[in-house]
Write a structure and sequence with these properties.
13 helices; five-stranded mixed beta barrel; five-stranded parallel sheet; OB fold (Dihydrolipoamide Acetyltransferase, E2P); alpha/beta
Length: 432
Amino acid sequence: MEESKEYSVSEISFAIKRCVETTFHSVRVKGEIFGAKRADSGHWYLSLKDENAVLSAVCWKGVALGLNVKIEDGLEVVATGKITTFAGKSSYQLVIEHLEPAGQGALLKLLEERKAQFLKEGLFDPAHKKPIPFLPQTIGVVTSASGAVIRDIIHRVRDRFPVRIVVWPTPVQGNGAAPKIAAAIRGFNALSQEGNLPKPDVLIVARGGGSLEDLWAFNEEEVIRAVYDSHIPVISAVGHETDTMLIDYVADKRAPTPTGAAEFAVPVKAEMVSAVHMLAARQINAATRYLNVLKQQLTGLSRGIINLNQVLSEYRQRFDERVLRVNHAFKNYFLLRTQRLDAVGLKPYFLTHLIEKHKISLSGLGARLSAASIDQVLKRGFAWVTDRHFNTVCDATTAKKSGELNIRFSDGIVKTKIAEERDARQFDLFDD
């Protein structure tokens, strides 16, 4: 009998390790957690079991901190990772790289726990919700670029009121979907109003129908917090009308379907035009009715006003009488004056004598005035003395003060200067 090859314990252990890790380098294992313990280092040690077997497992600290599932006994989960051996105890274990709830019951339990947590933090508070703009210029959509959802949204918007639509394509289910959905929401909020890509006035986060597992990305904490922190109003449209995800509670508006989200985002242009025409017609009718009421009121008031012609007729008659009386008075006045003039005209002799008498008196006065004129007086040997300003000088004192004198004779004026007074008075004469 040929002897078999001899191995050391270590060789057997490493051979088994290579075989196990090569064969089970990536597996998904469904089971119920029990015996879960957290070490001081932050690592988790636990077991997964079903009705027939138990599998040891470990979740390192870095992975455990990023899990969306709380590790606790009794929770049915699906663990993703790799199988490795532990030579020191001749055992094998699952190194967990991802953990998610398994089954509808587990998911619903986790959903209720998260909902209670977010409610406690106030993330679902109605006071935080923002109003949806009535007529946005740009709509941002976070959804898959290849599904029917985006086509339904685009068609519905174009049918109602065409505006610009910007799509940020993301996966909407499976591992890695939640971080990308959250990143898209934050990316839209980070856009500048002056950039080449316009910042949306409203966001639609949408996905078609599916199972709870398919829609689970919209229950993840990072998506919920991204919606809560969004400065842009968010409309959620995930699944069918009967599906309710945590994003529906935190969003500013929940739509039953993606098509319904488009209807919430924009009004119907045709209805707006019709409404404007209707309001314009109502305004015209209201103005017409108002003017008719005023006209009726004015007509009613006019019935109580006395006819103006009747009011003025009496005053016209009085005025005519006054005019007749004035004309009559003027005629009498002129007649009287005419008669008086005629009476004077009957005595021409006396009138002629009176005129001649006045002529003689006027002739005498004229002769006296002529004899008293300056020229006649100067011809009789008198002179008229004035200062440089032609003010009359009547005495010597004034003449001394004047310095210059103007002496007017009948045939001209002589200018003089007053010499200084010594022993005798001197006058320097010079011609003008």
